[in-house]
Structures are given as C-alpha cells and as structure tokens.
Amino acid sequence: MALSNLEPMNKSFIYCVVTVFSLPLLAAEDQPNIETLMTSEELRATGVGELSETQIEALNAWLERYREGEVTAAIAEVPVDTNSTDSDSVARQQPVDVYPPPRERIIINTRIDGEFNGWTGRTRFVMQNGQVWEQRRGRRWKITLDSPEVRLSQNFMGAWEMEVVSEGRSIGVRRIR
C-alpha cells in the first residue's frame, strides 16, 4: 500500500514520526533506516511496527529523500470557515511550517572514573571530566570494567544516552552536575 492510499490520520502520523526520527540524522554520514532508529518498544508504541513491508520501504525511501534535501518542509493545511468574518480566519489561511530546524548533535567522549560495575536502576556515573550522570531508565546490566570509555549524546528528543564504547551497550542518563 502506498502512502497516498493511507487514511489522512495515519498518513499524518507517519509523516510526524518520520520527521521526529529523522531530525538528528540530517548531519550523519551513515544513514540508518526507521527500523534501526527505533527500539522494538518504540516501534510498537508508535504503530510503525504495524506497517506492512511496502509501507516501511516507502517510509525509508521518503526518509532518504528528506535527508538528501529532495523533500521540502510540509505545509499544514488548515481548514478555513469561509462563512466566518472574524479576523483570525485570515491568519488560519497562512501555511505553517511543521518542521523545526535541525539541532546540532552534541557528543561528549570521556571515561568513567575508576571501576565500573554496570547499572542497577538508579546508578550514578562519575566521569573523569568531573561530570556526574545518573541512570534514568530502570534497566540492569552487570559487568566489571576499569575506567571504560563512554560516549554521551543527545537523542532526537533531547534526552541523553550513555554508551559504553567497548561493549556497545547504552542506557538513558541525566546529568546531575
């Protein structure tokens, strides 16, 4: 099924999801597809996981065209009551840019200060650069490493993720100081 055959609400939802998930990728060189951008929980929660293979392919093709600059910002079509005489009906006729400008992705490379034993739900991480971060997701992972290298980066929603580089494992964090 092509995107043009979807119900208007589903079509708008898909465009919104693609827009939100594509913003941090605009500057990335190796562009992943929508399935690699979202966790299985996010795929389920947003309904993207319910799309057919054809719909996923169309979504990924659109995402690639968007990254390449071939798709311009969508214009929201706002229905106007032609019988209305109020002054704001003129304002509602103006197109609205629905895409915010992309943010530059912030990445911090540092090391955990001393022995690292994974995370247990509310673990605090003291970094060699003096920053202190706290786990914001209730996951658990047990490992013992000595001052592992970590990469802290903001995701598309502005929340921070910490990746233990040598292990390829990451967890949501928030900065304490």
Question: Can you walk through the features of this model?
Answer:
This protein is an alpha+beta fold. The protein has 2 domains: 3-97, no CATH class; 107-175. The protein is 26% helix and 21% strand. It contains 5 helices and 10 strands, in the order ααααβαβββββββββ. It has helices at 8-22, 34-37, 40-46, 53-67, 88-92; strands spanning 75-76, 96-97, 107-111, 115-116, 124-126, 132-135, 145-146, 149-154, 160-164, 169-175. Strands 3-8-9-10-6-5 form a 6-stranded antiparallel sheet, with no helix packed on it. It has a two-stranded antiparallel sheet with strand order 1-2. Strands 4-7 form a two-stranded antiparallel sheet. α1 (8-22) packs across α4. The chain is elongated, with a radius of gyration of 21 Å. Mean pLDDT is 75; it is low at 25-29.
Number of beta strands? 10
- The average pLDDT value, as a whole number, equals 75
* % residues in beta strands: 15-25%
What is the CA–CA distance across the termini?
50 Å
The total of helices stands at 5
Helix/strand order, N-terminal first: HHHHEHEEEEEEEEE
| Main β-sheet description | 6 strands, antiparallel
Global morphology? elongated
Which structural class do the helices and strands define?
Answer: alpha+beta
- What percentage of residues falls in helices of 4 or more residues? 25-40%
The neighbouring-strand order within the major sheet is: 3-8-9-10-6-5
Estimate nothing, just give the exact number of structural domains: 2
